[in-house]
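Consider a protein example.
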Amino acid sequence: MCDSPNVFTALIEGEAQTGSAAPALLGGLARKPALPKEPAAAEHRLGSRRRRLWELPSQALCPVIGVCLPMPLLRRRLGRLPGINPRANDYELHCLAIDACGQRSDVAELLQRELDQRFIRTLRLAAACKTTLALAAWWAAASQGQPLREGEPPLDVAACFWATLTHARCEHSLQEQVLRDIHMLQHQVGAANRADLGRLEALADENAVLAAELARVQQRSQRVLQERAAAQERQAAELVQLRAQLLGRDTLLASLRDDMQALEAAAPGLRHRQEQAEQIRHQLSRIQDLERALLRARQDAALAEQRQRESQAELQRLQTLAPAEPVANAAPEPASSPDLGERAVLCVGGRPSVVPIYRQLIEGTGGRFLHHDGGEEDAVAKLDASLAAADLVICQTGCISHDAYWRVKDHCKRHGKRCVYVESPSASSLRRALGALEAGTAPGEDAANQLG
């Protein structure tokens, strides 16, 4: 502590021996005449007046000035006085303040007023302690950081230290206890400061690492922002180009619209003629399709005629080679087949294996054979075209779909075409159906009941 010999000790001792007015470091500051201190026995005769700073014992001045007056505040207060060296360090100013407060002086009175004004609220709270025991209990609670009342913040230890030492009821024993407590508290504060310094160094290292990481992140962010700004500039340029293109297209469209209006005004029937030209092109395309279909039909007819001649020749050959008398158990056949006279006979339905037999029978009677499987493999929509091309219709009800059956029945009724409905797909059933057609069955009549 500051009680140990230092650079000011010789000056203080020299002043005591020579009786000089002020030490050399005070720069000639005027001091008030020193008041004689009361004898030691008078310390026990306590009154009601608070003690002043210069009335405190010398061992109390160092903790009072060091704890109760922060160094920046002490430098500001002493810096206002003339003769103080402004380049003096903190230790020199601290020792100068201790030496000046050893007796009543301008420095002591200045620091006394500063402390009373700084801790006026705590001094008022300490004034409520009327006995030494009450003051000791109040100091014990304040030094341990306990609040006086529930819900209030704890008092400042420095303020309680100043209020307790200068209290009128602060006896010698309490004064020693307060000085011991504040001495140990200073050691604790020093240890805490050293720990805080260690933590501060660790935090400084961590802060350096975080600062480096932050710098890298900022660089990345800056790079990303620059790239985004460049992309936005490119998009803005593309947007300007697109707007220019759109404006050009709108201008071109407007000019074309004006040209079209001018042409329409010059040729009122131009649009109608264009529609007629489109219809003519469509009709020409349809005529070409029909001509190709007719050519295919003629080729098919020639092929069918050739097949018919071949089949007739084959039948004659078979009749020549066959025995004169039929088999006893064979089914009776009609005496003669009807002559269809190049009429188209549409056979709807039937198994694929009997279709060649149907073709041979129909073409053998002079008709043209048409076939539709009734929706098994061929599309039902194609049935209408086959019905339109047929003169006679044979519908095998057991081998077609319901949709095909109703299409056949409806078409024959609406167009007055002869139609025979056959249940069993066989050659004999087809011969009987042809006989029924030759006999003149009514159009659209269900002849299934006439056939086996």
